[in-house]
Design goal:
The chain is an alpha/beta fold and 214 residues long. Strand 6, helix 8 and strand 7 form a beta-alpha-beta unit. Helix 1 runs antiparallel to helix 4. The longest helix is centred in the middle third of the chain and has 19 residues. The radius of gyration is 17 Å and the shape is globular.
């Protein structure tokens, strides 16, 4: 690695916290209400990562807002029961914080729900900056959210790594000029994330430490 990395930005869902079951169940609940028995688990996997507006917009552009309301209502009601932790995340993030790294989150989720997940997993104390869906005009893979986070952290793309489990995380990092790391625990599989050619692929979040020289 040419530049010393001082700053690590993380995606939230599927990267720091295991919201996979919550998201899949929320989509299936919503779609079953509008299109009974039409959608199965594998049908909603492509919706993991993009915004709710993008996902529901591909199904019925005229009913996007009401479907989002249905989704969010179910999602919030079932949040704490269905969210799980990923092995190695809490320890790794704590270590990075203790070593003096600047840590931020860049997510396509709304800020209030982001905080709900971070608090549930005891991760809320480690991040100086959170750039959520409601903070930007353009979401990942556009670099705007990353630039916004770096501005607040007083960091440059060259000293930053973007960590995520989905294509838009890796592409956003590349578009912003950061180093990128893909998570092999992506629900879409290691091969999926490898297609987008991140600089590194993590098998466990703890893999970050030797990559960063810790």
């Amino acid at each position: 690695m040419t530049n010393k990395i001082t700053t690590v930005l993380f995606d939230l869902d599927g990267t720091l916290i295991d919201t996979n079951e919550l998201i899949i169940t929320s989509y299936l609940h919503t779609l079953d209400k509008y299109y009974p028995n039409k959608y199965k688990r594998e049908d909603v996997l492509p919706f993991m990562g993009p915004t709710l507006h993008e996902a529901f917009g591909t199904i019925d552009p005229d009913r996007v807002e009401e479907m989002i309301l249905e989704y969010r209502d179910f999602n919030i009601s079932n949040h704490d029961n269905l969210v799980r932790e990923f092995a190695g995340v809490l320890e790794t993030v704590r270590t990075l914080k203790e070593k003096g790294y600047k840590l931020g989150i860049v997510t396509t989720k709304r800020h209030d729900v982001t905080m709900k997940g971070l608090r549930l997993m005891n991760l809320d104390a480690f991040f100086e900056v959170i750039v959520a869906y409601d903070h930007v005009s353009k979401t990942k893979p556009d670099p705007e959210p990353i630039f916004k986070a770096l501005e607040q952290l007083d960091s440059t793309p060259e000293e930053t790594m973007m960590v995520g489990d989905n294509y838009h995380d890796i592409l956003a990092g590349k578009n912003a000029g950061t180093v990128t790391a893909g998570c092999a625990w992506s629900i879409k599989g290691r091969e999926y994330i490898a297609k987008y050619e991140p600089d590194y692929i993590l098998e466990n979040m703890a893999d970050l430490l030797p990559i960063l020289g810790e």
